[in-house]
């Protein structure tokens, strides 16, 4: 199975990229790099892709397990190399679950299944970065 995206230059440093979903995303850079910050930075977009991929897995697994939470978020921090080409050499992904009655065992299992088995973006990151995964439970 192949995915195809088309990325069109929109002037200056701005690009618009489509997606097989039918939605588009703007990609730009900071003013110090000649852009206007009118879109997402390409490297940070990779971190969003990682969180989005794993988050979709976790929610799908939670639904199958009939586990509910009041809220769920992920924080991702990527550390770039000093030398060009700069890439993420280490990435920390923190899962945060919020609720009054959290089933910590099932939620951790959902995270583990995503991290170890299902998330293809996670596997891609493993090829070039050291990953640190943490799960936090916040009782409300």
UniProtKB/TrEMBL annotation:
SUPFAM superfamilies reported for this sequence: OsmC-like (SSF82784)
Name the UniProt record assigns to this protein: OsmC family protein
Segment forming the signal sequence: none
Origin: domain of life: Bacteria
Pfam entry (one): OsmC
């Amino acid at each position: 199975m192949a995915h195809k995206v088309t990325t069109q230059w929109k002037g200056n440093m701005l690009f618009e990229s489509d997606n097989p979903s039918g939605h588009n995303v703007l990609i730009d850079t900071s003013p110090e790099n000649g852009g206007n910050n009118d879109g997402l930075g390409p490297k940070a977009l990779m971190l969003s892709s990682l969180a989005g991929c794993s988050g979709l897995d976790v929610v799908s697994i939670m639904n199958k397990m009939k586990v509910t939470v009041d809220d769920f978020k992920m924080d991702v921090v990527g550390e770039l190399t000093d030398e060009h080409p700069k890439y993420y050499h280490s990435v920390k992904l923190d899962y945060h679950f919020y609720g009054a009655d959290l089933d910590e065992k099932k939620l951790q299992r959902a995270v583990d299944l995503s991290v170890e088995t299902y998330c293809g973006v996670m596997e891609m990151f493993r090829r070039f970065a050291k990953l640190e995964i943490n799960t936090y439970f916040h009782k409300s």
